[in-house]
Write a structure and sequence with these properties.
Layout lengths: L19 E4 L6 H9 L3 E5 L17 H5 L7 E9 L4 E10 L2 H17 L6 H6 L2 E6 L8 H25 L9 H25 L16
Length: about 220
């Protein structure tokens, strides 16, 4: 369990060599990514546009928004980039795809709601970036093609949705305990309830009032 005072950072994890760490944009920090890379592992992480300055192979600043504008339809972007850290440089790739109009509009509306709560106005770059899914990975193209990188992130997002449901339905996001032992017991109880709900939901998909499934045969 992470100390709440540390916040979200990849430095909280023990690095396993050759492992791939898939994270949301809350972990998109140069020092954390460098920590994983120096440990012999790789990252696949959602990009926070403007979170750090990226550079292209020519050493010039990589304009993420400008490159995103080149994506049409379901074409996938795959661009080599790097960023500087206090100890050196980390190299990788930007993989990106444009969202559907409906998904993009949903993301934009969410941004306006979040900024409205803080009485702030989102920048044009923030609104434009909301129209795309952009990830950064340190795995080379031959090991993880761009389409596979995005599909991996799609799978990670399904896990994220499960946690979002547990937070909204079971209140898992509000921890009433402050000592480690009590907190663990409370979380374990919530996870057990979540597993029961999932088991009952799956069983309900195949439930029939007579207690057994029918074998459908062609009518004679």
């Amino acid at each position: 369990m992470t100390d709440y005072s540390k916040g979200e950072t990849l430095k909280n994890f023990t690095v396993e060599k050759d492992a791939l760490y898939m994270c949301d944009r809350g972990y998109y920090h140069p020092e954390g990514i460098e920590y994983i890379v120096n440990g012999g592992a790789h990252v696949l992480i959602r990009v926070n546009i403007g979170g750090t300055t990226l550079y292209g192979p020519n050493g010039k600043i990589f304009d993420v928004i400008k490159h995103l504008h080149t994506l049409k339809g379901n074409h996938i972007g795959n661009w080599p980039v790097s960023f500087d850290t206090k100890q050196g440089k980390v190299s990788g790739r930007i993989c990106a795809i444009r969202k559907s109009d409906i998904a993009a509009q949903h993301s934009i509306e969410k941004i306006y709601r979040e900024y409205g709560k803080k009485q702030k106005t989102p920048t044009k770059a923030t609104i434009e970036a909301a129209k795309y899914v952009v990830v950064f990975t340190t795995l080379p193209q031959e090991e993880l093609p761009a389409v596979m990188a995005l599909d991996f992130y799609r799978g990670r997002w399904q896990v994220e949705l499960v946690f979002k449901r547990m937070k909204s339905i079971l209140g898992l996001g509000h921890l009433p305990k402050y000592d480690p032992v009590g907190a663990k017991a409370w979380i374990h109880g919530k996870l057990f309830c979540a597993m029961l709900i999932d088991a009952f939901t799956r069983a309900a998909e195949y439930f029939s009032p007579w207690g057994y499934p029918l074998e459908i045969k062609n009518a004679s």
